[in-house]
């Protein structure tokens, strides 16, 4: 059973706040809430007694970072469990796996399946949303292009008929957060408008759209690019396609899978340079093997082989999601991509929280918000994870 932080002060770390990095910062937690986040007190409320010893209930985190809990808005599973097919225990195992890697807020993504099955699945997952284990449901497929299907069964794909989109929304009972669409298909624009009317994110992805068709979808209300660069036409100088339209429009947040497989570092740099840190959301697009290991898995009806941490369809060899966890994405962004830590925190916590409409509770270290935070060591490895005031990974003093 997870240990509860109760009344705890995290002191001495570099704390990343919405306003920037605070050296020798302090975060106070009471029960399941943050009560204070800022510079260490100079006298009143100091964390040491007159002898210089650390006060009771205080963790000395000198040499560490404290950042908000990660928010993953596109995740298909982990720990050997699938969010599309697993039972409640399986789903919770997958959720727990990602929590141990710093993801304290997670949206469960489904893959293409029969409509009746997806509707049934939505009803099942909605119960886990209602009890607080998930932050919502993301439908990736079946309303996507057969030309850019990736690891989705072509036989099960269909045009985005607004009536069928509505069927999934109704089945999710208000817990649907995002639907990925190839908006150039018949019914695509009307489906975007339907999603907007119901407060659900319309995401453009697995698309073969032209530049002009993508602009039309954005004007209709689409606000997210599903794993930018992947499963869409490449950027061309005469036919710029969806990538240019998605990068240039201030209304779009672009998802990026920073695992070193889905994106070349130059592509990630291009996205950050053109969109800016305020319009990037790091995601995992993780499948069952995340946090579990190499082997043979099922992604919907398709068989996937995972070798050296890279997931590919057994037939055809298309990349089939990732085995990424967000702590790895964070560490890679900091040590390989050399992005500012404040920009990484925006992309991995604040931006997706805002998109999902939960930024009043999570996504930043501020008084009154949920006690969701991650402790990273000097090398950006996980040293502690706190979710709603309970330790998922309890820090070890002196390590």
UniProtKB/TrEMBL annotation:
Keyword terms: Carbohydrate metabolism, Hydrolase, Metal-binding
Positions contributing to Zn(2+) binding: 140, 206, 227
Keyword Metal-binding: yes
Pfam families associated with the record: Amidohydro_1
Catalytic activity: N-acetyl-D-glucosamine 6-phosphate + H2O = D-glucosamine 6-phosphate + acetate
Keyword Nucleotidyltransferase part of the UniProt annotation: no
Pathway where this protein functions: Amino-sugar metabolism; N-acetylneuraminate degradation; D-fructose 6-phosphate from N-acetylneuraminate: step 4/5
Residue span of region Disordered: 36-56
Sequence ranges of Low complexity compositional bias: 40-56
Residues at which substrate binds: 151, 230-231, 238, 262, 319-321
Gene Ontology MF terms in the entry: metal ion binding; N-acetylglucosamine-6-phosphate deacetylase activity
Manner of cofactor binding, per the entry note: Binds 1 divalent metal cation per subunit.
Active site, UniProt feature: 285
Required cofactor(s): a divalent metal cation
Biological-process GO terms, alphabetical: N-acetylglucosamine catabolic process
Amidohydrolase-related domain location: 65-392
EC code(s) of this entry: 3.5.1.25
Sequence similarity: Belongs to the metallo-dependent hydrolases superfamily. NagA family.
Protein name, entry field: N-acetylglucosamine-6-phosphate deacetylase
Species the sequence originates in: Streptomyces niveus
Native organism taxonomy: Bacteria, Bacillati, Actinomycetota, Actinomycetes, Kitasatosporales
């Amino acid at each position: 059973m997870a240990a509860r932080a109760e009344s705890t002060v995290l002191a001495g770390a570099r704390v990343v706040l919405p306003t920037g990095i605070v050296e020798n910062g302090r975060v106070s937690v009471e029960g399941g809430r943050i009560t204070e986040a800022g510079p260490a007190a100079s006298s009143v409320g100091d964390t040491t007694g007159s002898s210089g010893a650390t006060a009771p209930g205080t963790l000395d985190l000198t040499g560490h970072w404290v950042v908000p809990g990660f928010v993953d808005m596109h995740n298909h599973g982990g720990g050997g469990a699938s969010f599309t097919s697993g039972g409640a225990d399986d789903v919770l195992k997958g959720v727990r796996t990602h929590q141990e890697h710093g993801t304290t807020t997670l949206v469960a993504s489904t893959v293409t399946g029969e409509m009746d099955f997806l509707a049934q699945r939505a009803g099942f997952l909605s119960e886990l949303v209602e009890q607080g284990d998930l932050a919502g449901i993301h439908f990736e497929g079946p309303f996507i292009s057969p030309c850019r299907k990736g690891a989705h069964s072509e036989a099960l794909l269909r045009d985005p008929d607004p009536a069928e989109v509505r069927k999934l929304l109704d089945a999710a009972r208000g817990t649907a957060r995002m639907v990925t669409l190839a908006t150039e298909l018949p019914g695509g624009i009307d489906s975007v408008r339907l999603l907007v009317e119901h407060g659900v994110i319309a995401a453009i992805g697995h698309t073969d759209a032209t530049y002009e068709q993508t602009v039309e979808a954005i004007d209709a209300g689409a606000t997210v690019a599903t794993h930018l660069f992947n499963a869409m036409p490449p950027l061309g100088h005469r036919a710029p396609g969806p990538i240019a339209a998605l990068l240039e429009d201030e209304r779009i947040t672009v998802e990026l899978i920073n695992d070193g497989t889905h994106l070349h570092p130059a592509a990630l740099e291009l996205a950050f340079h053109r969109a800016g840190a305020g319009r990037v959301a790091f995601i995992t697009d993780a499948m069952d093997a995340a946090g579990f290991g190499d082997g043979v898995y099922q992604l919907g009806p398709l068989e996937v082989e995972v070798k050296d941490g890279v997931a590919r369809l057994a037939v055809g060899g298309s990349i089939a999601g990732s085995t990424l966890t967000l702590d790895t994405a964070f560490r890679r962004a900091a040590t390989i991509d050399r992005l500012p830590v404040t920009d990484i925190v925006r992309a991995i916590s604040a931006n997706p929280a805002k998109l999902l409409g939960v930024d009043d509770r999570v996504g930043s270290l501020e008084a009154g918000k949920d006690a969701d935070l991650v402790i990273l060591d000097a090398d950006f490895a996980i040293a502690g994870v706190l979710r709603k005031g309970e330790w998922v990974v309890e820090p070890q003093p002196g390590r």
